[in-house]
Design a protein that fits this description.
heterodimer, A: mainly alpha, three-stranded antiparallel β-sheet, 8 helices, 53% helix, 12% strand, flat, B: mainly alpha, 77% helix
Chain lengths: 182, 184
Protein backbone atom coordinates (compact mmCIF):
# COMPACT_ATOMS: atom_id res chain seq x y z
CA UNK A 1 0.00 0.00 0.00
CA UNK A 2 1.33 3.41 -0.90
CA UNK A 3 2.36 5.70 1.92
CA UNK A 4 -0.01 8.32 0.57
CA UNK A 5 -2.91 5.87 0.87
CA UNK A 6 -2.00 5.12 4.49
CA UNK A 7 -1.90 8.81 5.36
CA UNK A 8 -5.16 9.60 3.63
CA UNK A 9 -7.01 6.57 5.01
CA UNK A 10 -6.43 7.86 8.51
CA UNK A 11 -8.33 10.97 7.50
CA UNK A 12 -11.32 9.43 5.72
CA UNK A 13 -13.39 9.34 8.93
CA UNK A 14 -12.72 13.02 9.65
CA UNK A 15 -13.47 13.80 6.01
CA UNK A 16 -16.85 12.01 6.30
CA UNK A 17 -17.53 14.03 9.45
CA UNK A 18 -16.75 17.28 7.59
CA UNK A 19 -13.97 18.11 10.03
CA UNK A 20 -11.10 18.65 7.59
CA UNK A 21 -9.98 21.99 6.23
CA UNK A 22 -11.11 22.86 2.70
CA UNK A 23 -7.77 21.92 1.15
CA UNK A 24 -7.49 18.74 3.28
CA UNK A 25 -11.01 17.67 2.32
CA UNK A 26 -10.32 18.32 -1.37
CA UNK A 27 -7.14 16.24 -1.18
CA UNK A 28 -9.05 13.27 0.30
CA UNK A 29 -11.91 13.64 -2.20
CA UNK A 30 -9.62 13.65 -5.21
CA UNK A 31 -7.69 10.65 -3.89
CA UNK A 32 -10.86 8.66 -3.19
CA UNK A 33 -11.99 9.15 -6.79
CA UNK A 34 -8.82 7.64 -8.14
CA UNK A 35 -8.01 4.90 -5.56
CA UNK A 36 -10.33 1.85 -5.45
CA UNK A 37 -8.73 0.48 -2.24
CA UNK A 38 -9.36 3.70 -0.32
CA UNK A 39 -12.81 3.88 -1.92
CA UNK A 40 -13.54 0.47 -0.39
CA UNK A 41 -12.35 1.77 2.97
CA UNK A 42 -14.75 4.68 2.64
CA UNK A 43 -17.62 2.31 1.79
CA UNK A 44 -16.90 0.19 4.89
CA UNK A 45 -16.75 3.23 7.14
CA UNK A 46 -20.02 4.53 5.74
CA UNK A 47 -21.70 1.18 6.37
CA UNK A 48 -20.26 1.07 9.87
CA UNK A 49 -21.52 4.58 10.54
CA UNK A 50 -25.01 3.73 9.26
CA UNK A 51 -25.13 0.54 11.34
CA UNK A 52 -23.98 2.36 14.46
CA UNK A 53 -26.64 4.99 13.96
CA UNK A 54 -29.33 2.36 13.49
CA UNK A 55 -28.28 0.50 16.65
CA UNK A 56 -27.65 3.47 18.90
CA UNK A 57 -30.51 5.69 17.82
CA UNK A 58 -33.25 3.10 17.31
CA UNK A 59 -33.12 1.82 20.88
CA UNK A 60 -35.07 4.22 23.07
CA UNK A 61 -37.94 5.04 20.71
CA UNK A 62 -40.51 3.63 23.15
CA UNK A 63 -39.17 5.28 26.30
CA UNK A 64 -41.52 7.59 28.15
CA UNK A 65 -40.19 10.82 29.63
CA UNK A 66 -43.42 11.77 31.40
CA UNK A 67 -42.01 11.10 34.84
CA UNK A 68 -38.49 12.27 34.11
CA UNK A 69 -38.88 15.69 35.75
CA UNK A 70 -40.52 14.05 38.75
CA UNK A 71 -37.33 12.04 39.34
CA UNK A 72 -35.16 15.16 39.07
CA UNK A 73 -37.48 17.18 41.32
CA UNK A 74 -37.45 14.46 43.95
CA UNK A 75 -33.67 14.69 44.07
CA UNK A 76 -33.77 18.48 44.26
CA UNK A 77 -36.20 18.41 47.19
CA UNK A 78 -34.30 15.72 49.03
CA UNK A 79 -32.37 16.99 52.02
CA UNK A 80 -28.70 17.21 51.05
CA UNK A 81 -26.26 14.97 52.89
CA UNK A 82 -22.83 16.46 53.71
CA UNK A 83 -20.79 13.52 52.41
CA UNK A 84 -22.47 13.72 48.99
CA UNK A 85 -21.21 17.30 48.65
CA UNK A 86 -17.75 16.31 49.82
CA UNK A 87 -17.40 13.29 47.53
CA UNK A 88 -18.88 15.32 44.67
CA UNK A 89 -16.21 17.98 45.22
CA UNK A 90 -13.43 15.37 45.34
CA UNK A 91 -14.80 13.69 42.23
CA UNK A 92 -14.92 16.98 40.33
CA UNK A 93 -11.35 17.65 41.34
CA UNK A 94 -10.27 14.33 39.88
CA UNK A 95 -12.18 14.66 36.62
CA UNK A 96 -10.79 16.29 33.43
CA UNK A 97 -10.25 19.16 32.71
CA UNK A 98 -9.86 20.04 36.42
CA UNK A 99 -7.45 17.12 36.61
CA UNK A 100 -4.75 19.30 35.00
CA UNK A 101 -3.40 20.31 38.43
CA UNK A 102 -2.43 16.68 39.01
CA UNK A 103 0.42 16.65 36.47
CA UNK A 104 2.64 19.32 38.12
CA UNK A 105 1.62 17.97 41.54
CA UNK A 106 2.84 14.48 40.65
CA UNK A 107 6.12 15.86 39.24
CA UNK A 108 6.77 17.85 42.43
CA UNK A 109 5.84 14.86 44.56
CA UNK A 110 8.17 12.53 42.66
CA UNK A 111 11.07 14.99 42.86
CA UNK A 112 10.49 15.56 46.57
CA UNK A 113 10.18 11.83 47.11
CA UNK A 114 13.43 11.02 45.28
CA UNK A 115 15.41 13.64 47.19
CA UNK A 116 14.01 12.67 50.55
CA UNK A 117 14.08 8.92 49.92
CA UNK A 118 17.56 8.64 51.28
CA UNK A 119 16.47 9.87 54.67
CA UNK A 120 13.76 7.18 54.83
CA UNK A 121 15.72 4.38 53.15
CA UNK A 122 19.43 5.10 53.57
CA UNK A 123 20.58 2.05 51.60
CA UNK A 124 18.09 2.41 48.78
CA UNK A 125 19.40 2.30 45.20
CA UNK A 126 16.64 4.76 44.24
CA UNK A 127 18.09 7.40 46.50
CA UNK A 128 20.21 10.08 44.89
CA UNK A 129 23.89 9.03 44.99
CA UNK A 130 25.99 11.18 47.27
CA UNK A 131 29.46 10.87 48.79
CA UNK A 132 29.43 8.28 51.54
CA UNK A 133 31.16 10.60 53.92
CA UNK A 134 30.23 9.83 57.50
CA UNK A 135 31.57 11.28 60.74
CA UNK A 136 31.57 9.17 63.89
CA UNK A 137 32.03 10.15 67.47
CA UNK A 138 35.39 10.47 69.19
CA UNK A 139 37.21 7.18 69.47
CA UNK A 140 39.33 8.16 72.42
CA UNK A 141 39.36 10.60 75.27
CA UNK A 142 41.77 13.08 73.62
CA UNK A 143 39.32 14.86 71.50
CA UNK A 144 40.26 12.95 68.32
CA UNK A 145 37.61 12.31 65.75
CA UNK A 146 37.47 9.88 62.93
CA UNK A 147 35.72 10.18 59.61
CA UNK A 148 35.13 7.48 57.05
CA UNK A 149 35.11 8.03 53.32
CA UNK A 150 33.70 5.02 51.51
CA UNK A 151 33.75 4.45 47.78
CA UNK A 152 31.41 1.60 46.89
CA UNK A 153 32.58 1.03 43.33
CA UNK A 154 36.26 0.48 44.22
CA UNK A 155 35.44 -0.94 47.67
CA UNK A 156 37.84 1.57 49.20
CA UNK A 157 37.47 2.96 52.71
CA UNK A 158 39.59 5.87 53.90
CA UNK A 159 39.80 6.41 57.65
CA UNK A 160 40.51 10.05 58.37
CA UNK A 161 41.68 10.96 61.86
CA UNK A 162 41.72 14.59 62.88
CA UNK A 163 41.98 16.73 65.98
CA UNK A 164 38.89 18.28 67.50
CA UNK A 165 40.11 21.87 67.70
CA UNK A 166 37.53 23.11 70.21
CA UNK A 167 38.02 20.11 72.48
CA UNK A 168 41.79 20.58 72.33
CA UNK A 169 41.55 24.25 73.17
CA UNK A 170 39.35 23.48 76.15
CA UNK A 171 41.43 20.58 77.45
CA UNK A 172 45.01 21.73 76.83
CA UNK A 173 44.86 25.44 76.15
CA UNK A 174 47.41 24.95 73.34
CA UNK A 175 47.19 26.52 69.90
CA UNK A 176 44.98 24.34 67.67
CA UNK A 177 46.13 22.66 64.46
CA UNK A 178 44.01 23.29 61.43
CA UNK A 179 45.16 20.33 59.34
CA UNK A 180 44.13 16.76 60.14
CA UNK A 181 46.71 14.24 61.23
CA UNK A 182 46.96 10.81 59.57
CA UNK B 1 -41.63 33.95 23.40
CA UNK B 2 -39.05 31.25 23.68
CA UNK B 3 -36.14 31.87 26.04
CA UNK B 4 -32.58 30.96 25.14
CA UNK B 5 -30.67 28.46 27.26
CA UNK B 6 -28.64 31.28 28.77
CA UNK B 7 -31.83 33.22 29.73
CA UNK B 8 -33.15 30.12 31.47
CA UNK B 9 -29.83 29.53 33.21
CA UNK B 10 -29.89 33.09 34.56
CA UNK B 11 -33.48 32.67 35.77
CA UNK B 12 -32.45 29.44 37.41
CA UNK B 13 -29.50 31.14 39.08
CA UNK B 14 -32.01 33.65 40.46
CA UNK B 15 -33.90 30.74 42.05
CA UNK B 16 -36.61 29.93 39.48
CA UNK B 17 -36.93 26.16 39.52
CA UNK B 18 -39.47 26.30 36.70
CA UNK B 19 -36.71 27.62 34.42
CA UNK B 20 -34.66 24.56 35.22
CA UNK B 21 -37.68 22.38 34.47
CA UNK B 22 -37.78 23.96 31.01
CA UNK B 23 -34.09 23.17 30.51
CA UNK B 24 -34.73 19.58 31.60
CA UNK B 25 -37.55 19.16 29.10
CA UNK B 26 -35.31 20.54 26.34
CA UNK B 27 -32.42 18.17 26.97
CA UNK B 28 -33.81 15.12 28.80
CA UNK B 29 -34.11 12.97 25.69
CA UNK B 30 -30.69 13.89 24.30
CA UNK B 31 -28.96 13.30 27.61
CA UNK B 32 -30.77 10.01 28.07
CA UNK B 33 -29.77 8.86 24.57
CA UNK B 34 -26.10 9.58 25.19
CA UNK B 35 -26.12 7.86 28.56
CA UNK B 36 -28.00 4.89 27.11
CA UNK B 37 -25.42 4.65 24.35
CA UNK B 38 -22.74 4.28 26.97
CA UNK B 39 -24.57 2.04 29.42
CA UNK B 40 -27.04 0.05 27.28
CA UNK B 41 -29.37 -0.31 30.24
CA UNK B 42 -32.58 1.69 30.33
CA UNK B 43 -33.13 1.80 34.06
CA UNK B 44 -29.53 2.68 34.85
CA UNK B 45 -29.47 5.25 32.06
CA UNK B 46 -32.66 6.91 33.30
CA UNK B 47 -31.21 7.06 36.78
CA UNK B 48 -27.86 8.47 35.65
CA UNK B 49 -29.57 11.03 33.37
CA UNK B 50 -31.80 12.27 36.22
CA UNK B 51 -28.83 12.39 38.57
CA UNK B 52 -26.88 14.38 35.97
CA UNK B 53 -29.64 17.00 35.81
CA UNK B 54 -29.76 17.12 39.59
CA UNK B 55 -26.00 17.70 39.72
CA UNK B 56 -26.32 20.40 37.07
CA UNK B 57 -29.01 22.05 39.20
CA UNK B 58 -26.73 22.03 42.24
CA UNK B 59 -23.85 23.53 40.26
CA UNK B 60 -25.76 25.96 38.09
CA UNK B 61 -24.89 28.98 40.22
CA UNK B 62 -21.25 28.43 39.32
CA UNK B 63 -21.99 28.26 35.58
CA UNK B 64 -20.61 31.48 34.06
CA UNK B 65 -21.52 30.83 30.44
CA UNK B 66 -17.93 30.25 29.32
CA UNK B 67 -19.19 27.36 27.20
CA UNK B 68 -22.67 26.62 25.94
CA UNK B 69 -25.10 25.18 28.47
CA UNK B 70 -25.51 21.92 26.57
CA UNK B 71 -21.77 21.14 26.41
CA UNK B 72 -21.56 21.86 30.15
CA UNK B 73 -24.55 19.61 30.82
CA UNK B 74 -23.23 16.88 28.52
CA UNK B 75 -19.89 16.99 30.31
CA UNK B 76 -21.59 16.26 33.63
CA UNK B 77 -23.73 13.47 32.14
CA UNK B 78 -20.94 11.83 30.13
CA UNK B 79 -18.55 11.82 33.08
CA UNK B 80 -21.23 10.23 35.26
CA UNK B 81 -22.04 7.67 32.58
CA UNK B 82 -18.35 6.81 32.14
CA UNK B 83 -18.08 6.25 35.89
CA UNK B 84 -21.20 4.10 35.83
CA UNK B 85 -19.84 2.16 32.86
CA UNK B 86 -16.62 1.41 34.71
CA UNK B 87 -18.67 0.07 37.61
CA UNK B 88 -20.73 -1.92 35.12
CA UNK B 89 -17.57 -3.42 33.57
CA UNK B 90 -16.66 -4.76 36.99
CA UNK B 91 -19.89 -6.71 36.89
CA UNK B 92 -19.89 -8.17 33.35
CA UNK B 93 -22.50 -10.86 34.01
CA UNK B 94 -25.10 -8.28 34.94
CA UNK B 95 -24.12 -6.22 31.90
CA UNK B 96 -24.47 -9.23 29.62
CA UNK B 97 -28.01 -9.79 30.88
CA UNK B 98 -28.87 -6.13 30.34
CA UNK B 99 -27.51 -6.24 26.81
CA UNK B 100 -29.55 -9.34 26.01
CA UNK B 101 -32.62 -7.49 27.24
CA UNK B 102 -31.88 -4.60 24.90
CA UNK B 103 -31.46 -7.00 21.99
CA UNK B 104 -34.76 -8.67 22.79
CA UNK B 105 -36.50 -5.32 23.14
CA UNK B 106 -35.17 -4.25 19.77
CA UNK B 107 -36.36 -7.49 18.21
CA UNK B 108 -39.83 -6.64 19.44
CA UNK B 109 -39.83 -3.18 17.92
CA UNK B 110 -42.17 -2.87 14.96
CA UNK B 111 -39.64 -1.05 12.83
CA UNK B 112 -36.61 -3.17 13.37
CA UNK B 113 -33.82 -1.64 11.25
CA UNK B 114 -32.09 -5.03 11.14
CA UNK B 115 -34.74 -7.21 9.58
CA UNK B 116 -32.78 -10.09 8.06
CA UNK B 117 -30.58 -12.67 9.74
CA UNK B 118 -27.31 -11.20 8.43
CA UNK B 119 -28.19 -7.77 9.78
CA UNK B 120 -29.27 -9.23 13.11
CA UNK B 121 -25.88 -10.83 13.40
CA UNK B 122 -24.32 -7.49 12.53
CA UNK B 123 -26.33 -5.81 15.27
CA UNK B 124 -25.31 -8.38 17.87
CA UNK B 125 -21.70 -8.04 16.71
CA UNK B 126 -21.94 -4.25 16.93
CA UNK B 127 -23.18 -4.40 20.52
CA UNK B 128 -20.36 -6.71 21.48
CA UNK B 129 -17.77 -4.59 19.64
CA UNK B 130 -19.04 -1.36 21.19
CA UNK B 131 -18.96 -2.99 24.60
CA UNK B 132 -15.29 -3.86 24.09
CA UNK B 133 -14.33 -0.24 23.46
CA UNK B 134 -12.79 1.79 26.26
CA UNK B 135 -15.08 4.31 27.96
CA UNK B 136 -13.30 7.21 26.19
CA UNK B 137 -13.56 5.62 22.75
CA UNK B 138 -17.18 4.71 23.33
CA UNK B 139 -17.96 8.27 24.42
CA UNK B 140 -16.59 9.83 21.21
CA UNK B 141 -18.47 7.32 19.07
CA UNK B 142 -21.75 8.03 20.90
CA UNK B 143 -21.36 11.81 20.88
CA UNK B 144 -20.51 11.81 17.19
CA UNK B 145 -22.96 9.16 16.00
CA UNK B 146 -25.99 9.78 18.19
CA UNK B 147 -25.69 13.51 18.64
CA UNK B 148 -23.70 14.42 15.53
CA UNK B 149 -21.68 16.88 17.59
CA UNK B 150 -18.70 18.65 16.03
CA UNK B 151 -15.23 17.67 17.27
CA UNK B 152 -14.83 21.01 19.04
CA UNK B 153 -17.89 20.41 21.23
CA UNK B 154 -16.92 16.79 21.87
CA UNK B 155 -13.51 18.05 23.00
CA UNK B 156 -15.15 20.53 25.38
CA UNK B 157 -17.38 17.83 26.80
CA UNK B 158 -14.59 15.32 27.31
CA UNK B 159 -11.98 17.87 28.36
CA UNK B 160 -9.57 17.16 25.48
CA UNK B 161 -8.41 18.79 22.24
CA UNK B 162 -10.03 18.44 18.82
CA UNK B 163 -6.96 16.51 17.69
CA UNK B 164 -7.48 14.00 20.49
CA UNK B 165 -11.13 13.62 19.51
CA UNK B 166 -10.12 12.99 15.89
CA UNK B 167 -7.54 10.44 16.97
CA UNK B 168 -9.89 8.65 19.39
CA UNK B 169 -12.61 8.47 16.74
CA UNK B 170 -10.17 7.10 14.21
CA UNK B 171 -8.96 4.34 16.54
CA UNK B 172 -12.46 3.53 17.79
CA UNK B 173 -13.73 3.14 14.24
CA UNK B 174 -10.70 1.10 13.29
CA UNK B 175 -11.35 -1.28 16.19
CA UNK B 176 -15.04 -1.61 15.31
CA UNK B 177 -14.19 -2.13 11.66
CA UNK B 178 -11.68 -4.82 12.56
CA UNK B 179 -14.19 -6.72 14.66
CA UNK B 180 -17.01 -6.39 12.16
CA UNK B 181 -15.00 -7.05 9.01
CA UNK B 182 -17.14 -10.04 8.06
CA UNK B 183 -20.31 -7.92 8.06
CA UNK B 184 -19.12 -4.79 6.33
Amino acid sequence: MMKRCEELRDRIGAWMDGELSRSGAEEVRVHLESCPACGEQRRQLEKLQASLKAVLVAGPSNVSFERFWFGVEQRINRKPVWHEDFFGWVHDLLTPPQLAWLVPAVIILVLTGVFSLESFFPGSRLAVQRNNFAAVESIDGFGRNVALLREDETKTTIIWLYQNQEGEDESTGEKSESSPSF
Amino acid sequence: MEFSDWDLVQKCQAGETSAFQELVSRYQQKIFMVVLGLLRDREDSMDVAQEAFFRAYRKIKGFKGGSSFYTWLYRIAVNMAIDAQRRQKRNPLEFRENMDEVLEEQNELEKDPFSNAHDKELRAGLFAAINDLTAEHKAVIILRTVEGLPYKDIGEILGCSEGTVMSRLHYARKKLQGKLKAFL
